[in-house]
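Please predict the structure of the following assembly.
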Amino acid sequence: MGYRFKLIGYPITHSLSPWIHEQFLERSNLQGTYKIHEIKPEDSFEENIKRLKNEQIDGFNVTVPYKQAIIPFLDILDDTARKMGAVNTVAYKNGKWIGYNTDGVGYVRSLESKYPNLFNDKENRVLVIGAGGAARAIYYALDRYEFSNIDIANRTKASAEGIIESANSPRRTKILSLEEAEKNVASYELIIQTTSVGMKPNQEHAIISSNDMNLNTIVSDIVYQPVLTKFLRDSAKKGAMIHQGHTMLLYQGQYAFEIWTNKKINIGDMDTKLKDILEGR
Ligand code: ATR
């Protein structure tokens, strides 16, 4: 019968996850399906999860707005998911439902695949812009990969403090306002934009100006609609190296698929294929 995977969330009819996981199944020569299971806000979440569990599936992804709501229905949480307080991947193993969060590792893998040298010096200075769920996942992952200089810039400084406190690591992290970040972009080797600013239909906005961007800086944006955000475009004009958000989707999926099947699929040309899909080609 093969593997059976699902995605729960709302709204998810335009999700790219079915395409990504069908590619993984095909590329690994495994039989299986990946289907969406939309749970509307007016539906009973508990009933839906019970039904899903009874279907004896092998695993499912969880997206907005259920990444926290799913937790009470799981038997075990892995360390990262517990620290995040959010689950995006669930696997059924040895009779237990186990929750994981693949966002941070997915992001770091995507970055490492494009800029491996960045990982040779863990003292490289990193600036994370934003302090929402994605920023938290990325901060924890970089922290686990032992980057020692990670600063956070956010419109609301208190949210950034929350991330540092719960990371509970001894690193020194400075918290910057967006204005301070803008003035100091040249002092970072890596800048990661994690807010929704610049996402369609507001693609003419950039979180900060790239005027002072340094030639040697890697500028990353997790927004993937559009695949080339204004922030990345402006930074590239200044000579910065860029890293696009759609690759995070692929590596996050790679990690989830690995949790489910123990197979790590090579991303290869899926990067260009996904870009084509996102650009309507
Ligand atoms: P996610 O969980 O997807 O990362 P989120 O929790 O909604 O998203 O986080 C949104 C992030 O984008 C926050 O850092 C938010 O800043 P605040 O903490 O000040 O709210 C940031 N953000 C969203 N819209 C913004 C805007 N117009 N200008 C600046 N920052 C913005």
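The first strand starts at residue 3 and ends at 9. The mean pLDDT is 97.
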